[in-house]
Amino acid sequence: MVHPTRTNLLLLKEKSRSVQNSNGILKARRQALIKELLAASAPFLSSRDTVRIFYGHAVCELAVSLAIEGSDMMDSIAAVAERDLGVEVSERNVMGLRYREVTVRESPLRPLDGRGYDYRSTTPRMEEALNNFEQILHAMLEIAVYESKLKCLGQEVMRITRRIRVLEERILPDLQQQVKAIAQFLGERERESSFRLKRFKNLRLN
Asked: Which own/partner pairs from 138-142 qualify as long-range (CB within 8 Å, at least 24 positions apart)?
C-alpha cells in the first residue's frame, strides 16, 4: 500500500480520474470501431451469399455446356476470354487502424459482346455459365476487399475490450481501494488529533 499521506491521496485520486477518462476514451473508440465493423460486414455477408447462389448454377450450366459443346470448344473460349483484371493491394487507415485493401481496376462482369469471341456460335447455357462464374469472381473480389478490414477491426475491438476489462476489473478497483484506505486512515488520525487537542484544552482549564 502507498504511504498514507494527503499528497499520495491527491495523487491517487488524480490517477483514478485519469484511468476513468482513459476508460471512457477506449469505450468511445470501441463503439466507433463496432459501428465500422457492422457497416463493413453487411456487404461482406452479401458477397458470400452471392458466391453460394451463383456457384451452384454455374456448375450445373458448365456441366451441360461441356456435354453439348465439348471440352475443346470450352478450352478455346477460355483462351480467348482470358484477361488481367489488374488487382491492386493498398494500405488504408480507419481511425488509426491500418489494414490492406484490394482494389480492382476493371470489373470482371462483361456483356455478351465483350468476351472476345462470337457469342452467336455458343449456346445460351454456356453464356449463362460464363456469366455465373464472372458473378462469382466479382463477389469473391468484394469479399477480398472487406475481409482484411473486418479481420483488423475485429482484432482491434477485442484488444480494446481486453484493455477496458483490465482497467475496470483490476486497476480502477485497486486505486479506489487505496484511496478509500488512505482516506479512512487520515480521517481516523484527524479524529485522534482532535480528541487529544480537546483533552489538552480540558486539562489546561482544570
From this structure: 138/107, 138/108, 138/109, 139/47, 139/48, 139/50, 139/51, 139/54, 140/47, 140/51, 141/85, 141/87, 141/102, 141/104, 141/108, 142/43, 142/44, 142/47
Q: Could you report the per-residue pLDDT of 172-194, keeping only the tens digit for each?
A: 999 999 999 888 888 888 877 77
DSSP state of 196: H
- The domains located in the chain, with CATH, are 6-201 (1.10.287.3240)
Partners of 100 in the beta sheet?
91
Question: What's the pLDDT score for residue 206?
Answer: 60
Residue type, 167: L
pLDDT at 106: 78
Q: Which residues contact 144 (CB under 8 A, 6 or more apart)?
A: 102
